[in-house]
TrEMBL record:
Protein name, per record: DUF2202 domain-containing protein
Highest taxon in the source lineage: Bacteria
One Pfam short name: DUF2202
Lineage per the UniProt record: Bacteria, Pseudomonadati, Bacteroidota, Chitinophagia, Chitinophagales
Species in which this protein is naturally found: Phnomibacter ginsenosidimutans
Residues passing through the membrane, by range: none
Domain DUF2202: 18-177
Length: 184
């Protein structure tokens, strides 16, 4: 995806776009780090596969940070370590919740994707840069696919996930639609 990002023109960043890029870099790191911790505990393949996808999401946002000469908030941070105190608290809570049981872990996964989708929708709405919109659109495709995977895992155990951030209508639309392919 880096080639596609670099092929689009660099456009002036609004304060919101700059803050959004910095936040999204760490939010994607949060997802990756939580999924790695939960995979280590439960060995569920969804966590291994989706953690690898989150790394690609982190790399795509890093390409934008580099393109716009923004300092990477995730640089030199260990797994589970964040510059944003709110994300640090969220990470700690999500890992603690996910360590309770395999089903709790799947619920944590769905919750992370729920939050990502909400934040991405807001970011896409408020951004007018082509490259940012392209990356965020691809991240949203990935998050919808991840939501489907976590939801399938929960449904197989008879658990119904109730979205906390996106609407029930948006959630239903996601889980009732086919897997999507993003840019590689």
């Amino acid at each position: 995806m880096n080639a596609q990002i670099m092929a689009l023109p660099a456009e002036p960043l609004s304060a919101f776009e700059q803050a959004s890029l910095l936040h999204m870099r760490e939010e994607e790191k949060l997802a990756r780090d939580v999924y790695q911790a939960l995979y280590a505990k439960w060995g569920l393949q969804q966590f291994s596969n989706i953690a690898a996808s989150e790394q690609r999401h982190m790399d795509a946002v890093l390409s934008l940070l580099n393109k716009y000469n923004l300092t990477d908030p995730a640089a030199n941070k260990q797994p589970g370590e964040f510059a944003d105190a709110g994300l640090q608290q969220l990470y700690n809570k999500l890992v603690a919740d996910g360590l309770q049981s395999a089903n709790a872990a799947l619920t944590v996964g769905a919750t992370i994707e729920d939050l990502d989708l909400f934040d991405l929708a807001v970011a896409i709405e408020k951004s007018d840069n082509q490259d940012i919109d392209m990356v965020y659109g691809n991240l949203a495709k990935g998050s919808r696919n991840h939501m489907r995977a976590f939801n399938r895992g929960l449904q197989s155990s008879g658990i119904t996930y109730v979205p906390q951030y996106i609407s029930q209508t948006v959630f239903d639309s996601i889980i009732n639609s086919a897997q999507e392919r993003g840019m590689q």
